[in-house]
């Protein structure tokens, strides 16, 4: 697999809908094997930025290069996880079928799964700790289990760039462990990671962080970015200093399956 | 010989009706599956009714009604697309407006002409007992087209059902495949009005696929179950229509819907029983 | 769950096996007539030379009828099908064509008599370009001005023509009616005279008819009536009355001094009530599409004539 020098490169980027920016002044570079955490409350523009990187939205202005080209031009190199999944309730699919879908664009329309594809699928399920749920229908799983399956699907793509929106939503402690371990492996493989999170602990593990609230509050290594002052400015919430780094009490933490980011059909 | 087979063995028109119903069921199994999974019931219904002025116009001009239906469906799909992209209105509203508008237009057209008062009924409710050999050919071709397209686009369609964003990211245009799906729905609807009619084809799209959704664990199986349900409903519906002198198309669709509710009740009860058993036996969280 | 379905399915098939056939045969030939009034006349003609069955139950609006599977089966298996034609049995058209195509003999009454077209006998002012009843076939207007009137049974004279034409067709189908043909034709002629007699009390300037739909054309021609208009200006009861047409009708009723509106099967009741209220006309229901209790054509025509006479001679 050929590696691109800079999986993500943005200059003076503004993102939004219908030519109206919800977030502007973004200058970032993510190198192979590096990770970037987007931190901010709902409506801060995190999802919009992620969707733009994934190629689902056009940038409002500025420059954005993804995997060496226009966003959306390299499907095989990219894995994207969106924030809301409503299909789990009706769709008759087993977990393993969901993960197998990750290999579709590698196989073409009709080619049957190769042994290598199948091995990747199995391994991904294993890494997220849901191998025992492989043949269970997706809709019979709990929210946390479903999320693990979606993450297994991301892993099975063997992408160069992972763009994940709230990947740990609904996961329990074990699930989060598995996710962090998997992300570590991905980065060792050379993949770049851009993820949004409400969890400061997760953000601290990344190489760089971007603190957002309609604009860029701060950008840089997490410990420099996620200071009490910055967090107050972003979330409007008080915090306590515990031990090593700042720990926030999240009061605006709203995880709903009901809300929808505006979709364009 | 016996009342379950004789009507079919003795009457060619019933054999044709059965065959037509099976062909419609096959197409509806594939298309209906996607309608159910993608929540396209509303637009499916709208298409089924929106074709009315197209058909009415075609009949007025002496053109083949299916051509009119195709034009009507095209107007519907195009109109919805136009309204949703050019304005802030949700597709829900756009579909609703076009649906009602086209339906009203169709009725106005029919009522202002002195002809085809009976034809309106035929269009809406079909003429399952009046299927001719050439009608069968047309239906067979349409079903073949739908099956082939369903097979060809199986993977992108599956992705679209799972998550339109994922499909887009993986290189399959969400918009293109969404419109392809709509066209397949339209094709099925257009060809159907000679069998169960445009009003009722909607039932054939939803009920068998609904049964499939309740029972299947995989999408392929869902389509198979839908196909069998549709075919079975055709058989029972025609049989009932014969013995009880009920309208054929409506009987078939009613049977399909009844089957759905029977299966629904069965699965609901069995799920509740299983859930209670699990809660009693294990300390695990109850699966919804 | 599938296992239980399979068991149920096979049980179903087993139970279903059982001899159920029943046959009713006199001479073994069957004549299927589409609707009741025509059926009465044909039954008179055929007697017991063949078994005559009527598809549409009496009281059903023939313009509205939906054939069931058994109806279509009966048509396909008949030795002769007698239909009205002229688009009366719109909903049976397909089945009749299919049957004819596969060799069943189908007799269309409308092909064997002089057919009138709508526009004849009506007041000239009502329809533009329809002077003197020169029928123009307008494309696509099957039931509008200029189209053929299917209500053949409204005149015994017309039925006489139909019967006369039917006899050889019956013979071809192997049904010999013998002397009955002459008897029936004579009866119809006598009936014609009786009807004319029953109507004789009505003065000439009262011989105006406003009906539910355009159904009394042949009656009007035969007995010297003028058709002022209809609530539903169509040859079919299934059309809808439009606002402009209702207004026109009201004006005609007033200008022509019409005192009775004759409603029939399928006539929209509230529209009629509204017109009656505004014009002061009375409303009388006529049984124009279905047989009386004794099921004979004779009573049908006499009841009709008497009702018209009673309403207009008053």
Index terms:
heterotrimer, B: 288 residues, mainly alpha, ABC transporter involved in vitamin B12 uptake, BtuC, 14 helices, globular, C: 314 residues, alpha/beta, Rossmann fold, 2 domains, four-stranded parallel β-sheet, two-stranded parallel ribbon
Describe the structure in brief:
By secondary structure, chain A is an alpha/beta fold. Helix content of chain A is 31%, strand content 25%. Chain A has 9 helices and 11 strands.
What best-fitting shape of chain A do the alpha-carbon axes yield? globular
Which percent band covers the strand fraction of chain C? 5-15%
Give the fraction of residues assigned to helices of chain A: 25-40%
Which fold name fills CATH's third level, the topology of chain A?
A: Rossmann fold
Quickly give the structural class of chain C: alpha/beta
Number of distinct helices of chain A: 9
Question: Would you mind describing this structure in some detail?
Answer:
The complex is a heterotrimer of chains A (265), B (288) and C (314). Helix content of chain A is 31%, strand content 25%. With 265 residues, chain A is of the alpha/beta class. Chain A has a six-stranded mixed sheet with strand order 5-6-7-3-8-9, with helices on both faces. Chain A is globular. The relative contact order of chain A is 0.18. Chain B is mostly helical. The model of chain B has no long low-confidence stretch (mean pLDDT 85). With 314 residues, chain C is of the alpha/beta class. Helix content of chain C is 41%, strand content 13%. A four-stranded parallel sheet of chain C has the order 2-1-3-4, sandwiched between helices. The radius of gyration of chain C is 22 Å and the shape is globular. The B-C interface holds B 1-7, 10-14, 59-60, 62, 111-118, 121, 127, 129-130, 132, 238, 241-242, 245-248, 266, 270 and C 1, 12-13, 16-20, 63, 66-73, 76, 90-91, 94-95, 98, 102, 139-144, 147, 233-234, 236, 238-240, 242.
What secondary-structure arrangement, pairings included, does this model have?
The complex is a heterotrimer of chains A (265), B (288) and C (314).
Chain A: E1 8-17, E2 20-30, E3 35-39, H1 46-54, E4 61-66, E5 78-81, H2 95-100, H3 104-107, H4 115-127, H5 143-156, E6 161-165, H6 173-189, E7 192-197, H7 200-205, E8 208-212, E9 216-220, H8 222-225, H9 228-235, E10 239-242, E11 245-248
Parallel strand pairs in A: 3-7, 3-8, 5-6, 6-7
Antiparallel strand pairs in A: 1-2, 1-4, 8-9, 10-11
Chain B: H1 6-10, H2 12-38, H3 41-50, H4 52-61, H5 65-86, H6 91-112, H7 117-125, H8 133-152, H9 154-162, H10 164-169, H11 174-192, H12 197-215, H13 219-244, H14 248-281
Chain C: H1 2-16, E1 30-33, H2 36-46, E2 51-54, H3 69-77, E3 80-83, H4 93-101, E4 105-108, E5 118-121, H5 156-172, H6 180-199, E6 208-213, H7 217-223, E7 226-232, H8 243-256, E8 260-263, H9 269-279, E9 282-285, H10 297-313
Parallel strand pairs in C: 1-2, 1-3, 3-4, 6-7, 8-9
Helix pairs in contact in C: 2-6, 5-6, 6-10, 8-9
